[in-house]
Amino acid sequence: MIPSHSQLYAKHANGSKFWQGAALYERCLADNQENLQQADALYAYGYEFLGMSYTAYIHRAIEKIQQYGIDHVVFVAREGYLFKKIYDILVHTVPTAITAEVTTTYAYLSRMSTFLASAPQLTTREIVISNYRATPGGLGSVLQYIGLPREAFASLASAHGLNLDQHITNHWNDPALLSFLNDSSVQSLVRHYHQQSYDKLRQYLEQCHFFGNNRKVALIDIGWDGTIQDNLVRAFNHLPTFPLLHGLYFGRREVKAFFKFSGSFSNGLIFDTREPSMHEKSLSSCVELFEKGAGAPHASTIGYEHSESGIVRPVFKSAQSSSRQEEIVGNPAVAVMQQGILDFAHRYTKQLKAQSFSSDSVMPFTRGLITRHMAFPTSEEARQISYQLGQHAEDMGAEDTKSLVMKSERFWDALKSGKLKSAKQLLKFSTWKSASLKLTGIPGVHFFYTLRRYLSG
Questions:
Q1: Taking the CB of residue 292, how many other CB atoms lie within 10 A of it?
Q2: Is 75 within 8 Å of 85 (Cβ atoms)?
Q3: Rounded distance, CA 168 to CA 127, Å?
Q4: Residue 357: predicted pLDDT
Q5: Taking the alpha carbons of 295, 298, 300, 306 in that order, is the dihedral positive or negative?
Q6: Cα atoms in the Cβ-side hemisphere of radius 13 Å centred on 350
Q7: Closest by alpha carbon to 372, among 282, 437, 301?
Q8: CA atoms within 13 A on the CB side of 262
């Protein structure tokens, strides 16, 4: 008699953490097999892939919260929307139980809503960061990225011979730009808007119970570069009530040297570039998929305002903006996928109650599962993401959107019309190259791309 998958995994689980995770995963699949056979493909994708990835992350985060003695957990918008739901499912089941004194909040924070509060001056640093994070543009796009109204600086820029829409190509040595940055009138105006942003963000964080003497706060977020944490440290680290801040992220792509010299810690719990591996390369091949999978249905936060009652509330990107409209189109599909993710978290919790295991037991398999899906997606998986999830928008106020996976019909139409450059552009601007190449159907192209990616340094 041929043993079942469950029996094989259970046999190997005693001697290997990878197989321990595989055995747990198989039990979670078996527990929902009837639903999975009839479910929407995106529900199955959420359950069979992202569910394990996100739940293992939150499992580890809960262990770290207990280990570090965290007082308050801040779930950062917009990925914190789903992470908090998973946390609420798991929190009372993880063996290292969190005490009732640990409080939580969902905070409407973004890179854009925190940047200006951390920048009392406009320098080449802000220009470099904005051109790195967003599509490179002129001084006008830099001002927009930071959160400064471009119209307020138009006449000052013109006085120094600058066109707000002209691309900045030599920000270190451009005489007109350096003259603009050294103008006391410019910096005085920057400080005016900075102070407004600083005051409102500080009050909003106070409403979120962020500050406190001898307080330890954890940020739960998708992570990547830790920009929001960096902004908070730069803005408020001088305050005596600034907490000992721990960024407990899904992933970290780089390490900011600034964190080494502040009361702040930053760690990627699923992957961290301080521990490079093939799994880190897999996840970083399309971080936008993980953002989309955990993202809230509401728009990104672009700033804050005072209500009539005096509290500070978030200001969201306009629902009429083109990028927001693109997001809204994909929201129903994301909701289906997230239901699969949450159903997996419930099954995972059921196994946790029965066996009481640590996150270490599932990490090797979880990372392997990520590599399988990200580096070797099936054509059907790639097609579902391409046609149902819609566009991905950044949170820095710009209207730019990205396709996670290009549509193969547009690629082949361009090739058949002799528009080779257009076909290459479609591939270039899709964020998930492995899935896009898989959809082309060209024999060997996905294999050689993957081989080159993993053999490169």
A1: 25
A2: no
A3: 9
A4: 86
A5: negative
A6: 14
A7: 282
A8: 24
Distance (Å, rounded) from C-alpha 116 to C-alpha 159?
24
Q: Which residues contact 178 (CB under 8 A, 6 or more apart)?
A: none
* pLDDT tens, position by position, 134-190: 556 788 888 988 889 989 999 999 999 988 888 877 777 888 889 999 999 999 999
In sequence order, the 6+-apart residues with CB closer than 8 A to the CB of 419 are: none
Cis peptide leading into 215, omega within 30 of 0? Answer: no
DSSP 50: I
Is the CB of residue 221 less than 8 Å from the CB of residue 194?
no
pTM strictly above 0.70: yes
- In this predicted model, what pLDDT tens digit does every residue of 243-255 receive, in sequence order? 999 999 999 876 5
Q: Could you give the dihedral angle defined by the CA atoms of residues 189, 193, 196 and 201, in that order, rounded to the nearest 10 degrees?
A: -150
AA identity, residue 73 = V
Three-class DSSP category at 217 = strand
DSSP string, 225-275: T-HHHHHHHHHHTTSTT--EEEEEEEEES---GGGGGTTEEEEEEEEETTS
Report the C-alpha gap between 147 and 193 in whole angstroms: 9
Q: What is the arrangement of strands in the sheet containing 216-224, beginning at the earlier edge strand?
A: 103-107, 72-76, 216-224, 244-252, 264-272
CA distance 413 to 432: 20
